[in-house]
Specification:
The chain is α+β, with helices and mostly antiparallel strands. The protein is built from 64 helices and 41 strands. The protein has an eight-stranded antiparallel sheet, with no helix packed on it. Strands 12, 13, 14, 16, 17, 19 and 20 form a seven-stranded antiparallel sheet that branches. Strands 1, 2, 3, 4, 5 and 6 form a six-stranded antiparallel sheet that branches.
Amino acid sequence: MWSPTEEEKYGVVICSFRGTVPQGLVLELGETVQILEKCEGWYRGVSIKKPSVKGIFPANYIHLKKAIVSNRGQYETVVPLEDSVVTEVTATLQEWAVLWKQLYVKHKVDLFYKLRHVMNELIDLRRQLLSGHLTQDQVREVKRHLTVRLDWGNEHLGLDLVPRKDFEVVDSDQISVSDLYKMHLSSRHSVQQSTSQVDTIRQRHGEACRMPVPHHFFLSLKSFTYNTIGEDTDVFFSLYDVREGKQISERFMVRLNKNGGPRNPEKIDRMCALFTDLSSKDMKRDLYIVAHVIRIGRMLLNDSKKGPPHLHYRRPYGCAVLSVMDVLQSLSEIKEEKDFVLKVYTCTNENEWCQIHENIIRKSSTKYTAPSSNYGLIISLQLLRGDMEQIRRENPMIFNRGVSVTRKLGFPDVIMPGDIRNDLYLTLEKGDFERGGKSVQKNIEVTMYVLYADGEILKDCISLGSGEPSRSAYHSFVLYHNNSPRWGEIIKLPIPIDRFRGSHLRFEFRHCSTKDKGEKKLFGFAFTPLMRDDGTTLSDDIHELYVYKCDENSTFNNHALYLGLPCCKEDYNGCPNIPSSLIFQRSTKETFSVSTQLSSTKLTQNVDLLALLKWKAYPDRVMDILGRLRHVSGEEIVKFLQDILDTLFVVLDDNTEKYGLLVFQSLVFIINLLRDSKYFHFRPVMDTYIQKHFAGALAYKELIRCLKWYMDRSAELVRQDHIQEAMRALEYLFKFIVQSRILYSRATCGMEEEQFRSSIQELFQSIRFVLSLDSRSSETLIFTQAALLNSFPAIFDELLQMFTVQEVAEFVRGTLGSMPSTVHIGQSMDVVKLQSIARTVDSRLFSFSESRRILLPVVLHHIHLHLRQQKELLICSGILSSIFSIIKTSSLEGDVVEEVEMMVESLLDVLLQTLLTIMSKSQSQEAVRGQRCPQCTAEITGEYVSCLLSLLRQMSDTHFQHLLDNFQSKDELKEFLLKIFCVFRNLMKMSVFPRDWMVMRLLTSNIIVTTVQYLSSALHKNFTETDFDFKVWNSYFSLAVLFINQPSLQLENATPPKRKKILDKYGDMRVMMAYELFSMWQNLGEHKIHFIPGMIGPFLGVTLVPQPEVRNIMIPIFHDMMDWEQRKNGNFKQVEAELIDKLDSLVSEGKGDENYRELFSLLLLEKIEQETWRETGISFVTSVTRLMERLLDYRDCMKGDETENKKIGCTVNLMNFYKSEINKEEMYIRYIHKLCDMHLQAENYTEAAFTLLLYCELLQWEDRPLREFLHYPSQSEWQRKEGLCRKIIHYFNKGKSWEFGIPLCRELAIQYESLYDYQSLSWIRKMEATYYDNIMEQQRLEPEFFRVGFYGRKFPFFLRNKEYVCRGHDYERLEAFQQRMLSEFPQAIAMQHPNHPDDSILQCDAQYLQIYAVTPIPDNIDVLQMDRVPDRIKSFYRVNNIRKFRYDRPFHKGPKDKENEFKSLWIERTTLTLTHSLPGISRWFEVERRELVEVSPLENAIQVVENKNQELRTLISQYQHKQMHGNINLLSMCLNGVIDAAVNGGIARYQEAFFDKDYITKHPGDAEKITQLKELMQEQVHVLGVGLAVHEKFVHPEMRPLHKKLIDQFQMMRSSLYHELPGLDKLSPACSGSSTPRSNVLVSHGPMSPESIKLVHRHSPLNMLGSVRHSSSSLSSHTSSETGNLVILTDSSVGETAEDMYHMQASPSTSSLSSTHSAPSQMINSAPSSARGSPSLPDKYRHSREMMMLLPAHRDRPSSAMYPAAIMENGQPPNFQRALIQQMIGPCKPCSDPNLSVAEKAVPAAPSSWSLDSGSREALPFLSAHAGSVLAPPVPPRSLSHGHYSLHFDAFHHQLSDAPPALPARTLRKSPLHPIPASPTSPQSGLDGSNSTLSGSASSGVSSLSESNFGHSSEPPPRTDTMDSVPSQAWNTDEDLETPYLPVRYSLSEPDVLESLKSQPCRSHSAPTGVIPQDTMDPPALPPKPYHSRLPNMENEEGMMIEDDDKHRPLHRKVSQPVSAGKEEQARVAWEHGISEQ
């Protein structure tokens, strides 16, 4: 049964609970729980973290804590019953824990570790506090440490500052705002101080002076380690002041035996001393602990002969020092003893013994010797604070150890009454003695005795140091052989006071001989009495004593014999007639010096003082004695304070008439002496005296009389020093008066009460009289008044002892009222007067409400006057805050309505005025940084704000009511409201309180909202109807808006505990203000129109606050505004314009969210539904909502770590919206510039130029002036347009889009010409010319284009369910683009098919990306078809100004013919039209329209053959027109590709498919097309003939075998077509290989058109643009294992030998067109991502580059024999080359030729997955045409179609300066990722058995080759991968170079291959033709390749390494090569391939 708990209410979880039972509450270790019910070992309750969730948990998992339960029952609250500091620490640690982990995540490591340290300290301190074993002082100390650490952590973590009082968090409700402000200030101060926290006791205003805290050092000698002296020692410790050069303490003496232990066994562990009474000033001195070690034993330590063994001397040994400053910090921090080791240094020269400590401190190392070992004194030190009583209480252990109290030499700072001390300190300074006829100097020992008057030696009156008992005689230490010893040893003489008079000291001097018997021989003595004849003691000075001769026989029994002699010079002068016949003769050459210092409370060295204390002895001199008291030194007076005061009052009683005034003056002198800072500490002594020792019952009458007499004379006297002194002494005079009256009253039972009262009344009249005098004429009078005002508040407490509160208050009021007002007195008096008022307010008197009612009016009157004149603001604010503090405290106990009323009347208005003035000043100062420091201004502002808030907070309804009723007119009320609203606004705008003063800020907000609620009714009542006042209302609205937007009120940003705390205390003040605002808006009625459009922006800002309730209240106001404007103007254009304007800036500031957009639309549409202007309203709201969508997207993109693409897309979207939908030109232009900046940042210069062009187009060539806008100055429209044009031209230039820049150059040229500005005209024309040059000369890369579909609702609005075409970056291939898109949308899922998605995907809450490559369809076909136009020009038009793109998907219609798949293979062609052409203002545009057509198999065949013919014609024509120089490889390969494919069945497949009778009968409509195909085939034969003729003309002798092979195959091809197309045999004579006529067909072609270069070999890289790119029978599964792989063999010297590529034979089934199938046209534009340095690709795409890495790099990277260098036009590879590379490599990408057949595009998805990374942009340095590099394809992935076994090399344009990164090496075997389809063509979609995915032999291409050659090799053959050491090459593109002839081999399976592999290592390879290597021995290295890594060498079976021997050998232009090179190359291919296979 569950029962409510009684006691068990609060607990802490001590073991985590997983909540595995039904209703279980999950609890973490350390959480706190509130328990509601219990049942059999289980509790039911809530976690304080989540108070809404109730559940059960086991009772034994909870540690219960005591708690206070309030409001028992369902809603009870529980507060733990523990120290509030502990609770705070707990809560803070829990809050920090979360933030602490975040620090680690954010890499703020330093703070992370510091905070961890502080948290551990807090936990430890909290544990100590909870232990309950600490004393009160320790608790205070622990709390101080805790709070310092809490505040430190809060500040560093950016949390709120916690205001505290006595370490406890203050409750802001319990104290006034002013006090709260001060606590914040002091907490802030303590946080800043916390780093260097030292206990400094600051004297607070109004606090009684504190007793100074004495410090004490506890010193304990642990041991004297490594003591090797071997004799007893005395160690003396003392404190030494280096600056003063003197000892400041007595000595502490420890006697040790020769083993280093205490001589007295009882002293073990008790060798300790307490150096007492060190003041704070002493602690700041440069103090050292000095230890002198004196040994007791032989004269010389190491000489046993010196001196008899039984005689022991005190001899100096060594010294040790320790700097107190160095250890003070560490001693202050710890509370226990700390050990130190003091090294003992020995003295080098005994004569300097007295200075050894100074030498050690000064480090004069020549004067002392360091110890050989680390031996020394081990001491422990501890610093203690407090008076001795406290020390004894707190540290009983110290005193139990028999500690020796070691005092200061002199008095402590305060001598308390009852402290009796009588010590004389004597220092043995030095002596000068005669040698006495000896050859060596003496060893002198001094013996001293204290003798009483009767000659008796006083026992125990000599102390060598504390810690040892006093003795009767003193023996000095002996300095060896020194006649002028300097001792410097201090001895204390504690002589009893009664024995002091008449005593004297006698010093006896002996020589300690080390010879003879070693006796000590007396040879002289000196003496000095302790007191002079006049009763004064020996003065504190050095006394040089006379030395008298004597010997051992002399007797001192009769001391009178020598006492009559003079002891020193002064003495000698005193007694001139000394008989010369005395026994003792003075030795005139010898002297002896001692110094004394007296520390006595009973003995004085001052004659005048002595006379006063003994005044009765001199009755006739009393007047003189009293007068001379002023000349006695302060130290003497304070020492004998009690005695002097007693004497004075006795004198006064003796004769009041005679001595009254003098005693009064003496008393004033003594009182003022105690005001001196030096003697300030003696005031407590005076207080104690008055309270306990004073006995002058009659004194008061005389004191009052004298005081009044002084005051009354102040008007007449010119010199008023004594009057001022009396005024300053007022406090103590009154203390004496009151105490005296109390004593009198007590003695007489209250007699003469009336006389006393009336005398006090009269005294006050005199005081008023003094204050009311006009002091302007007399400066002395000012000082008198000032002195009186300063002392005046101090007498209140005394008066309260005798009078009632009201009486005293009346006295004070009269006095304060008698002061002249500000106008009449000077500045300095002002301050004094206010300080007096301040002290009055701080006094106890003011805390009584009875006195406040009397005093407040006069106080407020003075403050009011000062504030009016803006004088002494700081003091006034202090007074006010004190008043508020008192009133707040009183309001908690009683009623303060009346006082508050007074303050409101007097202060409110003037406070507001003052604040406005201060705030405006501080704002202007911020601009100017004026005279007063900003800190002060801020402080004054803070003070006054807190005063105003205090006042407002005390005001109740009645106060506000009275206030508002008291205004005489509406103007006054208006002025008041404007002032208070303005102050409130400034409060929020200027942020008077720092950000972390959350308590203060919230309280301020609370007071403001409360005040505004009171004032809004007055505003509504007085200024709504006829008296409507726009200014006041506007001020009100601005205030409300500012209030709601305050950062401190945005609770959404606060942590949950903080939010809960604020809501519990204040509620959500934004909502309160919003209701207030809304109701006031509704009250406006028809006046609302005045606030349209002005308040739209501010109200919009309020609605954007993320508080649902505020939004619900405020959004309907917009409907209201629209309605009112509609009524007035018939439309709401203003509302619309303003709303849109403001929305943009507010959303960009981070306000608003998706919920707001929905709510805005919902609320307004709902309201608008009922209106007549419904339609316009709805369209407006809709467009605003859509704008908001875009703005939010834009903001999210900008603030997130979004990619440039997203940001740009977003900006374009928003920009277009501003232009097209809401037509806001200015916003449109702003976003144009934002977009331009983004493009520049992303280095999209062309796009940046197009973007700026938008603005340029808005401008005209006119002189209209334009205002300053954005970064443009004010200028004419013409100038701005010119500037823009120049900038745009510059950007087009940087983006290499010169064609776009040229029209602008022309436009500018026209303008310059019309203005005759020939200089600019010349410049622009030159620019234009440069651009034409650039077009012809500079290399430009053709970009790829990718179609991207964004599906799903999770995409930003501007992308959602749309498709775009994107222009790729340089070198960016499909896979790289896919990666980029996926990284931009990490949540997105890649779709694996190209089909259009269905609704389920479009509407789902996810992100789907569909990406494939598309082919551009150029608009400008004409240029592309002109033969003579260079390819550099054409390439621009192929990929620019493109608006249409297409991609093809092959599919089979009807049954598929197994024999010939071409019959049923159709192409689905999709054409995409964009909204704008690319490039444009963005890199991507949305697809506007899609068209789908199907291309029949026959049409496809026609397009393929036609394109191939065009390609061949162009190439041949380029050779004919000498556009292609030298190297004929390209033509060779092209011809070979077509002829070989035809022989193997390429065209034959078409013949079979379409010339078949069945086909013709089934498709009668195709007759015309069939004829067309026949004609094209015939044309192809004809073109090939012409091509062979050209080839024969240019072919190199060494390539003849290839040419011969081509002619043979051409014959075969003709004959295969002969049956179908009769007449072919009559074609070209080139067949014979002899003549090379140029046919008319070819002559008609201009320079090579890339469009026409479409000829490719099936197994070669020449798979060109026009080729049929779907699987054909020529590529079917019949491919033999040898031919399935293209292996290209080249030799390094013969980069151009095409034959090397064809060491294989095609299977008979391949037709003449097979070459055209080797790769899809879609691949054409896709350069490998790595070619552009794309960092990573899925594994599936890596094979190609891994293959690449497997090749040995002889010069740089394998280059294709097909594209030798000589083909370059101006160093730029022609376009077909690009096509070629990409066919073999690229992702499926539609070809750019508009004439391509559909079938060409039928491409499977994955070819790119192993594409060789050859670049399509700048020719890539790592694919150089260095021969000898061999390439074999890797195993293709499963989805490859057969066409991809060909590998393509890029003859690259060797621009060394511009090397793109090399390819990263990757392992071949990796699990493939599923790529996004490269094109919509699915590999499975339409190929028959020859398709690689369906046929087994497709993938066997590689394996069959490798197996046939190396399948059985047990190890991979070796390879070298040294890609770095490649000599740089220079391409020579202008010469035809001869090529060495190579034997040709057609089959890889020939046996030579294996032989050559076994027999020979790789031989040297010469450079490719067209390469002129530099003739240097050490060619320069290529630029580094960032992504290139080497693969390790591997050895083959023989262990032989194959190296590129000649890689560094300079090669010459003509290099012959041995015949065997061909074999080597084949072998090489084989082993390379073997490696790839393995």
